[in-house]
Design goal:
With 91 residues, the protein is mainly α. Strands 1-2 form a two-stranded antiparallel sheet. It starts with 13 loop residues before the first helix and ends in a 5-residue tail after the last helix.
């Protein structure tokens, strides 16, 4: 998806960048992962007294990581420390 946004985010072009990224995320049905309207399911479920990974959470996490990569990729080479600020907590 990164190739679909020719403008890279900088400290001075947020509005221009936003006008390109927002519709792309909306058409790919990824916007809820950014605006928080699709929160994650519980990470684990208990089935027959055995805790296991929730498939709905695994799906949510994979989509969330796709969005994170798409948004962070253009700026990570200039500020790699940002990745750690946006990473989910380790379980």
């Amino acid at each position: 998806m990164s190739h679909m946004v020719p403008i890279k985010l900088t400290t001075t072009n947020y509005l221009l960048w936003h006008t390109q990224v927002y519709p792309l995320l909306a058409t790919k049905k990824l916007l809820p992962y950014v605006d928080g309207s699709f929160p994650p399911s519980p990470s684990n479920i208990v089935d027959a007294e055995v805790s296991k990974i929730n498939p709905a959470y695994a799906f949510w996490l994979s989509r969330d990581q796709i969005v994170r990569f798409f948004l962070m990729r253009p700026i990570l080479p200039k500020a790699p420390w940002l990745w750690w600020l946006t990473a989910p907590p380790l379980s």
